[in-house]
Specification:
The structure holds two protein chains of two kinds. Chain A is mainly alpha-helical. Helices cover about 75% and strands about 0% of the residues of chain A. In chain A, strands 1-2 form a two-stranded antiparallel sheet. In chain A, α3 runs antiparallel to α19 and α14 packs across α20. Chain B is about 75% helix and about 5% strand. Chain B is mainly alpha-helical. The chains are: A mainly alpha, B mainly alpha. At the A-B interface, α1 of A face α4 of B.
Chain lengths: ~500, ~130
Amino acid sequence: MKTLVIFPIIIPLITASFCLVSYKTPRLQWFFVGLGNISYFIVALTFLWATYHGNYYSIQIGNWEAPFGITIIIDLFSSIMLVITSILVFCSLLYALTMTPKEEFRLGYLSLTFFLVMGVSGAFTTGDLFNLYVWFEVMLMSSFVLMAFGGEQRQLEGSIKYVILNLMSSAIFLASTGILYGMVGTVNLTDLSIKLSMIEHKYPKLIVSSLLLVAFGIKAGLFPLYFWLPASYHTPPPGISALFSGLLTKVGMYSIIRTFTLFYREIDTTMQNALLIIASLTMLIGVLGAVSQNEIRRILSFHIISQIGYMLMGLALWTPAGIAGAIYFMAHNIIAKSNLFFISGIIHKKTGSYNLKSQGNLYKELPILSFCFLCSALSLAGLPPLSGFVGKLALIIAGINANAYITVLVSIVVSFLTLFSMTKIWIYTFWGTPNHKKTDTSETPQNLSFAYCSVIILALLTLGLGILGETFFTISYKSAQSLLQPLTYIEKVMGY
Amino acid sequence: MNSLILKTAGKYIAPLLFLFAIYLLLTGHNQPGGGFSGGLVASASFILLAFAYGVERTQNWIRISPIYLIALGLLLAIGSGLFSILTGQPFMTGVWITFNSLSLGTPMLFDTGVFLVVSGTTLLIILELLKEV
């Protein structure tokens, strides 16, 4: 089991390398990718099962002792994220099988995807702040190339915005790591946790953690640092933007939760209030942005931001129930939001446009797709029995128990606005008169069955996550509890 | 570029550069050098040839596409880390075999991987750019 800890990182790396070897033969690449994805999924599930029973697994890379070497550690929170990542990657591969032009596989689409997965799972499993920075860079490199795939002008425009702002975030991240190292002389997360708790004065910790909040906040798309996100997420091919929306912002959120729960044994009230205000504003501004848009993927991009606010709200409440809500919400959001992006890609294939005004009457043409859309959209808005309902209910109850009434009020209003903007997509795209010309008739009709498969899988998962909400919530509650009591985590890494 | 001086000199300098690259790679464990700088020098030797004799002939000399160099390098680097798993130690722990005074270890293998990745990447970028000239 201990040797397996490194596998979530090296399986994607090996897969990506083999894809590079066979870059001329996409068929062989698919074989490697399938193998890699399945083994990744199995490893992630194994860890979920093992960590659910209260275990932690950690190794020291190169056998260098804990505060000096790089720690890789998997706890329940990491393994939940790993499992969801593997499911999302599986669906995005299925989707890409038919939706991505053949020549893009020769250009390394699959190997880049797996380098991205390596970066993501590295970030989920590392126990070292500087190492986390490195994984962010791995993600940034591969996502930059993926985002510019196809080389259209607006894609390049989007990716330039994306890269410059993310580089800024990296610089701030690096600076805060340096400050931390200068302050306490370590970059190991657990060692930081111990040493920071010994500092009596509260301001150094406040400053460093706010710097980290800015760095991760840019990645996650928090208010007021979100503006790169809607400017770039609607430009890449839909399969890629779905993968990004599912993974990249959530890695930022994961890092915030991970570092904050380790740095603060008890949350500072100043920080807590700041987090609550940022969370409310992120929710509100995000959804208001979405309401004003008419392009389906721009609407969805703004919704990513507003949903990130819910997760931050969960963290800011600083109770097990709140953080459990945040974790559950993260899982729900990855599945529901990516599915909406996938669906927007299929709609684009069918109608030739992303604009709501030039679509219509798809309900008659594609009843199954409409049902899947409805599932994910209503789940996003938070209607029972879908997964969003459970997540929002948990967060709202936790909020009321923690006396954060204003944030709770905002979150309820935002839910209504989300419902409104989802209804807008529904009315324009699925009802109404067909405005679009049949664009597909000129080309050979494409077989989209694999794309439908991935959409249906994700829609069913949303449904399942909601109906079996109790079970999944128990898992996230357990991981939230262990996050708020990091002593076992610390013991596991430091070995005492 | 068609320069007799560059062609004549390149013929002698390029192999020397490549030898120096190998030297850097081997000496890197204990002294300044290593896979990264070795890889850069190695790619420089081929790029010198590309300047003197043109991209196509250089590609014929290299024989395999730089992409394979990158992939091979990555796999070597991962493989070097996996050795320690076989001996029951954490990933990337150095494993050493000693013959008399010569000791061979997995860090060497890792460095070779880095060498290949770096030279492959540099060659890929620069040869592709030279085609446009």
